Amino acid sequence: MTNRWNPLNTWFLLGTLVASIVLVPLHLYLNGFVWSEWIVCLVMVFMIGTAISAGYHRLFSHRAYRASAPIRFLWLVMGAASFENSALKWSCDHRIHHQFSEDPERDPYPISKGFWHAHWVWVMESTDKPLVGVTDLEKDPMVMWQHRNHFIIGGIFSTLPIWYGIAIGDFWGYLIIGVLLRIVVTHHTTFLINSMAHWYGTKPYSNNESAKDNFLLAPLTYGEGFHNFHHTWQWDYRNGARWYQWDSTKWLLKILSWTGLVNGLRTVSLTEMQKAKVHAEEERLSARLSNVRSQKRGVLEEHLLHTKERLVSCLSAMEQCRQKYKDIKIQYRKDPRSFAQIKTEWSLKVAEERRVLREAWRQWREIQKQIRMNLSQPTV
User: 66 φ, ψ to 5°?
Assistant: First the structure.
């Protein structure tokens, strides 16, 4: 049965896109490139996109941290200007997406229905569905206020560039670049996560999800490009978990945590991340080995499993050793003399665990190399 189209969503998405394609080049031709118009546009894109990433997504959808009332208000006001529905409805759709991401009949925007369906066709289809799985948000008066008034709130905030344009005598420039083009950019950078991040990239943490890490998307989407990580640990306040991975939302939330405006930043440990990567790589190598006809296949499969289990065990032992050392430091905080006596002993224990772990990593890299060499050789 063909889904009926949602007239409001369809006309708004197509109308703003077509209008931008026509009016932006025309404005540039008639008036030239005005730096202030584009700076205002980019500032609005960043502010509103960050409100979606930090607010709609990581705070309201996933409860990855706690935010003070001023920050929640800011995310809700700026998020409304995205014209991507209320935080309540957005979070409802997104939680369903995570729950049924591999079920095309229940996921609101499954990639299995095609790139463009996941990108924006699903938005243009009928969305008259009851709100489910958001009872926690329905108890929040601020969220409910935004839910009832998000069109008005979004309209007021998104038109701020127009008032600036009127003040300096450039109404049309700020309307076309600061409002119209900004809306289109906001929409499609958000939509890229539903489409591109499920279509192209790598799966370092989980092979069971269609979600992929795509570092090229990260700067365009405030860090949301590391989508395989996110689907594996959706409750983590980061998407780019490593320090070198671009995630402007992560950096902003960390800074806000220093001020006390947000707190309770939830994170998965590095050890758990490493374990997940090892499991995922072992699954991929095992799948490739299963298609190989070779006398070495059984030996390699057994060696791969044994090496993986040893590495995972060493990672757990290292984590336990570090945690116990931290606990002892806390225990002896008020007795530095006693701590000094056992510090050397524990330093040696940690050093030994590190040595064992390094050896386990070396063996893991070696078995990977052996398997790839065998896979590259032609079978007889």
Answer: -110, 140
The CA angle 236-239-245, to the nearest 5 degrees, is 135
* Burial status of residue 375 (CB atoms within 10 A of its CB: 0-12, 13-18, 19 or more): middle
Query: How far is the CA of 195 from the CAs of 115, 121, 236, in angstroms?
Result: 5, 11, 21
- Is-contact 81 157, C-beta < 8 A? yes
Residue 56's closest CA among 27, 91, 89?
91
Residues 227, 239 contacting (CB under 8 angstroms): yes
Q: Round to whole Å and give the CA distance between 86 and 147.
A: 5
Query: How far is it, in rounded angstroms, from Cα 325 to Cα 327?
Result: 5
Helix (H) or strand (E) holding 367: helix 336-376
Q: Kindly give the confidence (pLDDT) of every residue in the chain, 380 residues in length, as a single tens digit, with 9 standing for 90 and above.
A: 456 788 999 999 999 999 999 999 999 999 999 999 999 999 999 999 999 999 999 999 999 999 999 999 999 999 999 999 999 999 999 999 999 988 888 999 999 999 999 999 999 986 678 899 999 999 999 999 999 999 999 999 999 999 999 999 999 999 999 999 999 999 999 999 999 999 999 999 999 989 999 999 999 999 999 999 999 999 999 999 999 999 999 999 999 999 999 999 999 999 999 999 999 999 999 988 887 766 778 888 899 999 999 999 999 999 998 888 788 877 776 666 666 777 777 788 888 999 999 999 999 999 999 888 887 776 54
Full-model pTM: 0.91
Is the distance from CB of 142 to CB of 73 less than 8 angstroms?
yes
